[in-house]
Amino acid sequence: MKTFWSRFFPNLWVEGLADISLDSLKEKGISGLILDLDNTLVDWDSRQISPSVVNWVRESKGKGFQVFIVSNGLAERVEYFSQILKVPGISLAKKPRRVALRKALATMELTREEVALVGDQVFTDVWGGNRLGVYTILVRPTTSKEFIWTRMVRQLEGFILKKFRKSNYD
Hints:
By secondary structure, this protein is of the alpha/beta class.
């Protein structure tokens, strides 16, 4: 039975990118990945990207996945990391709104069933992905340093994630 809170539940919740089985996603028919940027791929206040993230994106593309960054962040930041990772990106996405996510789907020429969205926030990434109907994967934030607003929202996320855990173990 769907509850009000289930709209905020991810399909999968993992520690980080390395814990996402690309082969398992392929078995589900997924061939496109929409990735959040801040606190998913890189710390929100950093211009450094770890070699493990670069390798994970490279491996994803090597396995045939189309990769696309969709971020609520500023254009200059998204362009910078898009160039490093050699993937397209959309900035100022206004997630959980679906406009930018739909644009990513259209650019990749994939259906909702063929795409997974990976992000660190329940109310932007997971909810936006669920509203669009893509497979959603929640990762733990890369750092605890965040905007004050995001820190406040994390409190409510904790409540929702407790409900998610309970629904998966009942």
